[in-house]
Amino acid sequence: MAHIHISFHGKLIGVLLSLALVGAAVTSVIFVTEHNEAEGDPPVAFHNPFGLYSPGTLDQVPTSARLQMLGALGLDSLAAYQDYSLGLVRDVGVSWVRIDFIFDGWKFLEPSAYLEKLHRAGIEVMGCAQPLNSSLPADLTTFQAGLKHLVHQYPWIKVWQIGNEPNISMDNPGDYPRLFLAGRDAVRNACPDCRVALAGAATRYPSQPSTDHVLQVYDGIIAGIRKQTPAGSPPFDIFDLHYYGFTGSENDIVSIVQSFRDLLAKNKVDPNTDLWVTETATSTGQPSQPADVPSQTESQQAAELVERFTTLLAVGASHVSWSRPYENYRYGDRKDSFYDHSGLVYNGLGQEAAAGIRAGTKKKAFFAYRTLIEETRGATQMQRLGPGRYRFLFNGRGPLYVLWSNGPGPEPADLFGQVTVVDLTGRRTTTSGEKVTLSATPVFVETG
User: Fold this and answer.
1) Which residues contact 379 (CB under 8 A, 6 or more apart)?
2) I need a labelling partner for 292 at 20 to 30 A (CA). Which of 75, 204, 344, 376 fits?
3) Domains in the chain, ordered, with CATH?
4) Three-state SS at 234
5) pTM for this one?
6) SS3 call for 328
């Protein structure tokens, strides 16, 4: 038998979920009810849930920094940067992206030509409508009218999100329900078959208040929306969770997802409401801001991406998205910040210029993401067997394991005989199951 030092801590409470598929919306992951107590958590039916947040956009990047980013890549326009980013989207193999539509008080800013290119490329889009300012106007009529225009302008966008991270982006998060209700009504009136997502809850960002604080804010937000929702109608179709932790986050993610499921149930919202994670990332190198960001290597980022996405999907997320494929230089006009280190591709500026790293150099995490997508392509189900132990099932071939060490424990029962071990770069090695050993870096193990 294989020498795998990982443990099974029993089934995760509350992950027997049933998530509805959306006909024309982005492909989703749904839970099924089969459960074998001896084999870990219940399996989930699996499709391509992988995405990218904000590819090809430079919101909150100062004009001078935008010019530096474009110049480092040898590009002469934002349109050229959008085409470059679309190439990254295709290269890594994701099925969807989230694009923000910023409302400046009079109208929404919309990258029309780029959106059409994404559509023609077969990339699904989640549209996030959000105000530019941190406080809301008394009258949201113009916001509603602009959002209705967007829905009619892009009929192929079937998922619309209202706002973003009110717990950290708004002066008064308690005013967010008013924005959401205005946006929800606009979308549902203009497109009855569209789905509406609650603004993402910001969790685990450096220097951010504790998860308990986020839960408290969203408790008030959800309660306020629930009270103004007609009986028999869901207050929202999608709950979005953002997670910006560091390496080794598996156990933390399991706990946080369960906490938010409990919060939904407390407010009489279906705890099985579709869960998306439209923003998640971890950094490389040593960001200067915020002050408490640890130094991490490319290898750590790559390992964390695979571990994080695998964990999130297994505990109920139907869609997962890395935050920005390309590093944003001076994001928020902050020098050498987290977002200047958390992309999958180097921008070649700042610390990187001094180190001789050229703009456009792909990090190890880029290739790890592509390997994860390729290895799981065609899977019909996935299952969490225990910490660091995940299994994808296919029709007509043996299972695929994603495995890493997270404590001692039993081995998968069918990991024996000849297997193929695939590392995060996609390199394949044939060996016997008895010789497989694990470390903090995950590996893909193909059987059969």
Assistant:
1) 46, 392, 393, 394, 400
2) 344
3) 50-376 (3.20.20.80)
4) coil
5) 0.90
6) coil
